[in-house]
Write a structure and sequence with these properties.
Strand order of the largest sheet: 2-4-5-8-9-10-11-12
Strand content: 5-15%
Number of strands: 12
Largest sheet: 8 strands, parallel, barrel
Helix content: 25-40%
Protein name: DUF72 domain-containing protein
Structural class: alpha/beta
Number of domains: 2
Number of helices: 15
InterPro entries: DUF72, UPF0759_sf
Oligomer: single chain
Pfam family, one: DUF72
Radius of gyration: 20 Å
Length: about 375
């Protein structure tokens, strides 16, 4: 058995430090307003829980116009710059990390969230259960598999690959450290188990049949999800376009899994990924819009510096948004589930991207085909 931290170096410590405490449900009554001089509530103040932003009638109406099979959301939720959009007032990141999820889930358009924390360290069933307790019954979680099983390399603090990861795609660890605790803790609120395969080393890309067989063994070892989580989907996300082959589609079909449409500069645009969705049709849509193509394959830090505090659409990408809306319309028009999570680095502010995508989709309602995701 490989230890928990075999493929988990101490990178991104800041992100992990935000999650030392578990989220808690919202209080039964609104907390008192802060004193005028206190713009931000420090994590140690023992102050009120996070209050959701006041309901926006236009967004409530927009949410009612969307197909019920669709769940839109963001990647994580602990961003102070979302004040006025998601929460009322200003809060420190640590407060939002602990208490913000309950407020986030009250936004009319936010019906899912990508729980990215799980990539950096496996979570326990009790940790997942605490997240589930903070959200309403109709909310669903997109959960990333730990790097322990989803990264072919053990990486240093700078993200560089140091050595081969012996636990990569290990079936036993994928069940014990990911699928089983997520299912036990989230129950019917589990939406997607995402195996985002980090960039693969060249020698492994040269042995695709062996790689796909390892992937097949892992996926087929996962426990059945639908009896406990009727809306649950297993999806595989890539960072190597070389894997977009009919052979991968065959593996996914055999395992009852789907392809995660990964909108990232390391991958081709939506149109060039659609053949994989067509090969798996009919089926659900899982999409994670991670990074604006303007910043290139390694532009996360650049985008973060440019876009913080993530309170506006700094680099709108209407072309990607419209293309994604068409795929969503075709998928949900055929009665299939659709999960879409958007990162702040996609356009500058994930909640505003969600609103803009919902508006684009609303314009397409009634025009979507019912037989194909590309209609």
């Amino acid at each position: 058995m490989v230890p928990h931290n075999a493929a988990h170096p101490p990178r991104l410590a800041m992100q992990e430090s935000l999650f030392d405490e578990l989220p808690q449900p919202a209080p039964p009554a609104p907390a008192p307003a802060p004193a005028p001089a206190a713009r931000k509530r420090p994590a140690s103040s023992g102050g009120p829980k996070v209050r959701p932003a006041p309901p926006d009638p236009a967004q409530q109406a927009l949410a009612r116009s969307l197909p019920p099979q669709l769940r839109l959301g963001t990647s994580s939720w602990f961003f102070p710059g979302w004040a006025g959009m998601v929460w009322e007032g200003d809060y420190e990141q640590s407060v939002l990390s602990k208490h913000g999820l309950a407020a986030y889930a009250q936004h009319p358009l936010l019906r899912t969230v990508s729980l990215d924390r799980s990539f950096y360290r496996p979570l326990t069933a009790s940790q997942y259960a605490a997240y589930a307790a903070a959200v309403p019954e109709d909310f669903r979680f997109i959960v990333k598999a730990p790097s322990l099983v989803a990264d072919a390399l053990v990486r240093g603090e700078d993200g560089r690959g140091m050595q081969a990861n012996p636990a990569f795609l290990d079936p036993t660890l994928a069940v014990q450290e990911f699928a089983a605790p997520a299912l036990a803790g989230l129950g019917p609120k589990l939406g997607v188990l995402v195996f985002q395969l980090s960039p693969l080393p060249g020698p492994m890309l040269g042995q695709l049949p062996e790689l796909l067989e390892r992937l097949r063994r892992m996926l087929t070892a996962l426990p059945p999800l639908r009896t406990q989580a009727p809306d649950a989907v297993v999806a595989v996300e890539l960072r190597n376009p070389e894997l977009l082959t009919p052979a991968l589609a065959q593996v996914l079909r055999e395992a009852g899994a789907t392809y995660c449409l990964g909108l990232h500069p390391k991958m081709p645009p939506i149109g060039e990924q659609l053949p994989m969705l067509r090969a798996l049709w009919p089926g659900p849509l899982v999409c994670r819009w991670n990074l604006n193509r303007l910043h290139g394959a390694y532009g996360y830090e650049e985008a973060k510096k440019l876009y913080e505090p993530f309170d506006k659409l700094a680099d709108p990408d209407p072309q990607t948004r419209e293309a994604l809306a068409r795929v969503i319309a075709g998928t949900t028009g055929a009665g299939q589930l659709a999960y879409v999570a958007i990162n702040n680095k996609a356009e500058g502010s994930a909640p505003l991207s969600v609103v803009a995508l919902a508006q684009a989709l609303a314009r397409l309602r009634g025009d979507a085909g019912t037989g194909h995701p590309a209609d």
